[in-house]
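Now for a specimen:

…
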Amino acid sequence: MKTLLISWQRLVNKAGQTCPRCKNTGDTVESAYTKLKKSLYDLGIEVELKKEILYFSIFTKDPLQSNRIWINGKSLEELLGATVGKSQCCEVCGDSECRTVSIGQNTFETIPEDLIIRAGLLAAAELFI
């Protein structure tokens, strides 16, 4: 079987907390993973999900590394032709501005499930090239 690896990285502080946008993206990543896993199995593609922790010491140096998604080594933004921005988040993130993703006129603080699925399908199609 071919493998489609979804990797998601998010900030987790010393108390084990993450911000609301990372928590919500975590929920959409899980849901997209489940749907992709069911849908791609009959095509001979096994879908795996890897969750990575970004510690606060690294986050403060580069906050845009938090709430990132890669699929088979390509960023979600690369797969979808999206751009990365930033906006103020919450107390868990301190004074840092956190990652946003924009496609067309739409900017997302939490990555929607449909974008993750779309990127996953594009990456899956590349497995057959």
Q: What stands out?
A: The chain has a mean pLDDT of 93. The chain has four helices and seven strands. The helical segments are 20-41, 56-59, 76-80, 113-126. The CA atoms of residues 60 and 96 lie 7 Å apart.
